[in-house]
């Protein structure tokens, strides 16, 4: 698993790369300006030096900027092999060309391996000393500067390399820590979900499934014994058996950790229509489902929430409302899908309601990032909105 380190914990050398870009640009601008403000510079030196400076800046922009993030030693050798002679050559053309030498050695030590960096440093110091002889002549001062450069440049280089290595290692450790933490969190979440699923599976299997099976067998026996002329009784028995069959299927689906049977072979509007069409004959009420907007597929979790909300609301109508009309509206809007179940029953006080159904419904809606509102002043209106 690949996990990115937090923004504040990235490779430290990469974080300060823009500072190196800025420093290079500032030094290049200063060097370029000196060509025009230094009266001792001849036209040949000015234009020749500017050509070298532009070539050096273009070479850095094309390759060097990408290598300042660390790594890429193969291309780093290519970059230094041209940047070194251009930088030393600029100093050989004009004395203030030494300004660009300030960026040469950090480049060498950040882009090359240890042995390559040492070799490039020795070559650079010797070439710089020879260029210095051009301006000051050979003297003890030149020799001292060369020796000091041989000593200071490697020390500076080792320090830069150490920073890069520590920064890289720190970023790797943080990435590994983040990956481990994410894996542990995922394992913990899965273990908790599995434990809860097993608990519910055991409870439902030992209670609901067996109870519904017994009810189904009793209703089938009763249906066989009833007189064939009692059409109303047979109709009620048929509905009871159908309900028991569906509840048994629901219980088995939960045990198997699969989706609701209503949504297995039907769309959400069709599943809701089955619920609405059934409650009308059962309660002798007028029931209606209205679907507005263009139906769009939702995540399975969202469809389950809307289905369960409808089942719970209609169950409350069946048990408490004493309603004559029930309207269910499923509206597909631009940014959300809205479910509205309204009845003209006696209503209730949502604040004082202590039933498990409403609490469970609110928790389900919240888990998928939706909102739920209940208005029970005149009848009852349950409104559930889920983001698309």
From TrEMBL:
One of its GO terms (molecular function) is kinase activity. It comes from Fodinicola feengrottensis. PANTHER family: NITRATE/NITRITE SENSOR PROTEIN NARX-RELATED (PTHR24421), SENSORY TRANSDUCTION HISTIDINE KINASE (PTHR24421:SF62). It comes from the Bacteria. Residues 170-197 form a coiled coil. Keywords: Coiled coil, Kinase, Membrane, Transferase, Transmembrane, Transmembrane helix, Two-component regulatory system. Residues 301-388 form the Histidine kinase/HSP90-like ATPase domain. The chain crosses the membrane at residues 20-37, 44-62, 82-105, 117-136, 142-160. This is Sensor histidine kinase.
């Amino acid at each position: 698993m690949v996990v990115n380190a937090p923004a504040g914990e990235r490779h430290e050398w990469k974080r300060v790369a823009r500072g190196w870009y800025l420093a290079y640009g500032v030094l290049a601008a200063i060097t370029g300006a000196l060509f025009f403000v230094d009266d001792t510079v001849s036209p040949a030196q000015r234009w020749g030096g500017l050509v070298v400076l532009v070539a050096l800046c273009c070479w850095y922009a094309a390759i060097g900027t990408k290598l300042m993030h660390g790594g890429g030693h193969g291309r780093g050798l290519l970059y230094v092999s041209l940047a070194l002679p251009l930088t030393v050559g600029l100093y050989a053309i004009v004395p203030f060309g030494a300004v660009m030498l300030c960026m040469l050695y950090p480049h060498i030590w950040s882009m090359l391996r240890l042995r390559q960096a040492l070799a490039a440093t020795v070559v650079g110091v010797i070439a710089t000393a020879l260029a210095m002889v051009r301006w000051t002549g050979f003297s003890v001062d030149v020799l001292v500067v060369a020796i000091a450069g041989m000593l200071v440049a490697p020390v500076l280089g080792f320090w830069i390399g150490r920073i890069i290595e520590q920064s890289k290692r720190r970023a790797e450790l943080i990435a590994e820590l983040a990956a481990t933490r994410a894996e542990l969190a995922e394992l913990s979440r899965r273990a908790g979900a599995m434990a809860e699923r097993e608990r519910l599976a055991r409870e439902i299997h030992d209670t609901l499934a067996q109870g519904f099976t017994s009810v189904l067998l009793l209703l089938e026996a009763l249906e066989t014994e009833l007189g064939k002329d009692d059409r109303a009784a047979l109709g009620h028995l048929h509905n009871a058996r159908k309900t028991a069959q569906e509840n048994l299927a629901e219980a088995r689906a939960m045990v198997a950790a699969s989706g609701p049977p209503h949504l297995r072979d039907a769309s959400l509007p069709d599943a809701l229509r089955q619920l609405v069409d059934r409650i009308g004959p059962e309660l002798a009420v007028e029931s209606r489902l209205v679907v507005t907007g263009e139906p769009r597929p939702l995540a399975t979790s969202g469809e389950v929430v809307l289905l369960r909300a409808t089942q719970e609301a209609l169950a409350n109508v069946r048990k408490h409302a004493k309603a004559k009309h029930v309207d269910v509206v499923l509206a597909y809007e631009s940014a959300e899908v809205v479910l509205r179940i309204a009845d003209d029953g006696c209503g209730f006080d949502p604040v004082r309601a202590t039933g498990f159904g409403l609490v469970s419904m609110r928790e389900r809606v919240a888990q998928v990032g939706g909102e739920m509102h209940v208005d029970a002043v005149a009848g009852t209106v349950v409104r559930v909105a889920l983001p698309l």
